[in-house]
Design brief:
This protein is α/β, with parallel strands linked by helices. The chain has 8 helices and 8 strands, in the order E-H-E-H-H-H-E-H-E-H-E-E-E-H-E-H. Helix 2 crosses helix 4. The protein is globular. GO terms for molecular function: AMP kinase activity; ATP binding. Pfam families: ADK, ADK_lid. Keywords: ATP-binding, Cytoplasm, Kinase, Nucleotide biosynthesis, Nucleotide-binding, Transferase.
Length: about 220
């Protein structure tokens, strides 16, 4: 299957992408991984991306699209892939369609993870990271530490990242509504979108997603 995963920040796309890709036996292709791989391997596209990133600028669509095309042409993606974070706007969606058409392929579905905006803010703004070890993550509501402001694991100070502040989260949501949401209508016009609720436990959302994708592939 060839699937695009969409949803607002805080919808759990990364978590669900990993589970879905494993269940479907296809590679999980995320924009973040594409950037890291190309930069670490010092590819021409990686060098271009790094130039923009060092200058504090957004990486242009053509660079991101080039990285995605290269990744989708690797042997492990021959049987399908799950795209996470790409496409993120209409120009990228159109470029993806053009690429797939040129390869004689098409998308099988677009999975839209739906989460109320207030829940997104609650999920992200409640995160607390450990200064000693960033892998130690807590949540003010869903996974609070035993002692407020102190990491249960190593005793390090817990803090809220700038990206997780409520005002920053709301700005990220504005960008999502402006840039990424239009691709949902674009794919709806192609009859590809399956929308599911991303509320509930991780396993419940994964089961919901798998059932929706199975229905889509059978139709």
């Amino acid at each position: 299957m060839r699937i695009v995963l969409v949803g607002p920040p805080g919808a759990g796309k990364g978590t669900q992408a990993a589970y879905l890709a494993k269940n479907l036996a296809i590679p999980h292709i995320s924009t973040g991984d594409l950037f890291r791989a190309n930069i670490s391997q010092d590819t021409p596209l990686g060098r271009k991306a790094q130039e923009y990133m060092r200058a504090g600028q957004l990486v242009p669509d053509e660079v991101t699209i080039g990285m995605a095309k290269d990744r989708m042409q690797q042997s492990d993606a021959e049987g399908g892939f799950l795209l996470d974070g790409f496409p993120r706007n209409l120009a990228q969606a159109e470029a993806l369609d053009e690429f797939l058409k040129g390869e004689g392929l098409r998308l099988d579905g677009v999975l839209d993870l739906e989460v109320p905006e207030d829940e997104v803010v609650k999920r992200i703004a409640g995160r607390r990271m450990c200064r000693k070890d960033s892998s130690h993550i807590f949540h003010a509501i869903y996974n609070p530490p035993k002692t407020e402001g102190v990491c249960d694991t190593c005793g390090g100070e817990l803090y809220q990242r700038e990206d997780d502040r409520e005002d920053t989260v709301r700005k990220r949501l504005e960008v999502y509504h402006t840039e990424t949401e239009p691709i949902i209508d674009y794919y709806k016009a192609q009859g590809l979108v399956v929308t599911i609720s991303a509320l509930g436990k991780v396993g419940e959302v994964t089961e919901r997603a798998m059932a929706a994708l199975e229905r889509e592939s059978a139709s």
